[in-house]
Specification:
By secondary structure, the chain is an alpha/beta fold. The protein has two domains: 7-155 and 320-350, Quinone Oxidoreductase, Chain A, domain 1, CATH 3.90.180.10; 159-295, 3-Layer(aba) Sandwich (Rossmann fold), CATH 3.40.50. It is 27% helix and 28% strand.
Length: 359
């Protein structure tokens, strides 16, 4: 049960693969445009795993204790005096990035690369959503329709990344594309690309159960690179190679495969977060093919489209959540995802809910 006496439960990282639950004051509204949220559902993300298992992503280093988490849906508890977009009782999808609106990047409609960006669960920016309550700006709260569940609303954040990546790829109609890595982000890209009328989607992964999910999400062919000859599979699927490749796992081997599998003039989109600060490319092949490389920094302006896609049922994520935990079971949830156990695709955490014992 949620504590109603001014205190709430919060889960923080206290060391490598160490989580601790504590009781802290419920945050209060400070600004007229603030929204006080009761967290409904939290998605465990791959970037959370970087902080959990290594304590960092590049220059962003955790200083303990710190609360991670940025994928969530929530119920509006109360609002500041200037809020008009949402009202108490609304279920909202939460956009975790808070931009200033005034810097050169924001003025150029690049809010995702804001010079003063504050991001949920990012060290040095804002504590994450692994708690019972959260205060966010109105601009980060996107109401969803009554038919949408808290779980579906929590999926909006990764889906918006998939939609943005598909937009950055350009015109995908009649294109042959590859998705390297079929975790939640790779699956989100598959669903988004499928809706753009792509000619054929070819997916790869090391885990057979994720390839099954890729087929359900819209992939036409899926290759288990641990058991199959991926080059031979590609030759059969796309003898002229691929127009676009989305690298969604952050692995050097996938980068090498992407450059080899792209046709001349192809485009490589980098979405996965590598564990190392530097990666390499075969520059001879990259140059001769004139491959275009596009980094994907989260999403920019695609949350509304993701909400509409979920609300209408165009992007169906109902079968992609595989595990559910209470806030008290957060350690078990993180360990499950970190170790790729029990065919996990997406684990969700429900604050304030009693759940079955964790697997």
């Amino acid at each position: 049960m949620t504590n109603t006496h001014g205190m709430m439960k919060k889960v923080s990282l206290t060391g490598i693969q160490q989580l601790r639950m504590e009781s802290v004051p419920i945050p209060a509204i400070q600004n007229a445009t603030d929204v006080k949220l009761r967290i409904a559902c939290i998605g465990v993300c791959g970037s959370d795993m970087h902080y959990y298992t290594s304590g960092r992503i590049g220059a962003q280093v955790v200083r303990y204790p710190f609360t991670v988490g940025h994928e969530c849906s929530a119920i509006v508890e109360s609002t500041g005096s200037a809020v008009t977009r949402v009202k108490p009782g609304d279920l909202v999808a939460v956009e975790p990035a808070m931009s200033c609106g005034d810097c050169d990047q924001c003025r150029a409609n690049r809010h995702h690369t804001c010079r003063k960006l504050n991001f949920l669960g990012c060290p040095g920016q804002k504590e994450g959503c692994m708690s019972e309550f959260l205060v966010m700006p109105e601009a980060c709260c996107f109401p969803v329709g009554p038919a949408v569940t808290p779980e579906e609303a929590a999926w909006v954040e990764p889906l918006s990344i998939g939609i943005y990546a598909a937009h950055l790829a350009g015109n995908l109609s009649h294109a042959h594309i590859g998705i390297l890595g079929c975790g939640p982000i790779g699956l989100s890209v598959i669903m988004a690309a499928h809706q753009q009328g792509v000619k054929r989607i070819w997916a790869t992964d090391r885990l057979a159960y994720r390839l099954e999910a890729a087929r359900r999400a819209g992939a036409d062919a899926a290759c288990d690179i641990e058991k199959e000859d991926a080059d031979k599979c590609l030759q059969q699927e796309a003898p002229l190679q691929l127009d676009v490749v989305f690298e969604c796992c952050g692995q050097q081997s996938a980068l090498d495969q992407a450059v080899a599998w792209l046709k001349p003039g192809g485009k490589l989109l980098l979405i996965g977060i590598p564990e190392t600060d530097r990666v390499t490319f075969n520059m001879d092949l990259l140059r001769r093919k004139e491959i275009c490389i596009q980094n994907v920094r989260r999403q920019n302006g695609c949350v509304t489209e993701a909400v509409q896609s979920v609300t209408s049922g165009i992007l169906n994520n109902k079968r992609l959540t595989t595990h559910r935990f209470s806030l008290e079971q957060s350690q078990a949830a993180f360990d499950l995802v970190a170790d790729y156990r029990d065919k996990v695709i997406k684990a969700m955490i429900y604050p304030g809910k009693e759940m079955e014992p964790a697997p």
